[in-house]
């Protein structure tokens, strides 16, 4: 395992299909692998989504080459620590990249953490499949609640069930997301993949994924399987999948692990 880019091994605990939706649950094999994933991969993803440290380092580099910026680098305010749900979203994004050929070239968390966020709806927006790119739109929920399923899955206004149903059945919102991607991918190395995904989208081919990042809970299929019918998916080119990732650390520990107090380096 690379020290700079550690991977995680997973054990699949359940897999099934209901109402034309694929459901699967994966358990982290190693506590230490998971810890290093948080410390190195997730923390880096959060920093990329923020941009503050990158700006500070850029200003310092300019000043060392002779630019007179009036001490601007010292005026950059540190961003607040990421919240546990933001850590869960970053974790899900990386795992989907590692295990499911997802690609998120623009950090969606950047828009969500600004004061006037412009990203509508889903937590994850990008492409999926390297050889035949299609759009991926995803929702992420994190929980360590001792309840099956956790309330974030089916019992709040913005629960995973409601968000996935909205994502599946409201094409106007998806159009906003595609426009959001176009602005960022046009005239970049991603433009060809975007155009391929757009062609497939016109035929109904896209990947909608709902993710539960579950800390210190037993893997139980009922966490996800019972919301399938209410999402309202019908057979066709669109693929809908619900995935649970079960981690050895309680959600309350995630912030400390990311910011050092829980890290074993």
TrEMBL record:
Identification of the protein by name: Anti-bacteriophage protein A/HamA C-terminal domain-containing protein
Organism (species): Dehalococcoides mccartyi
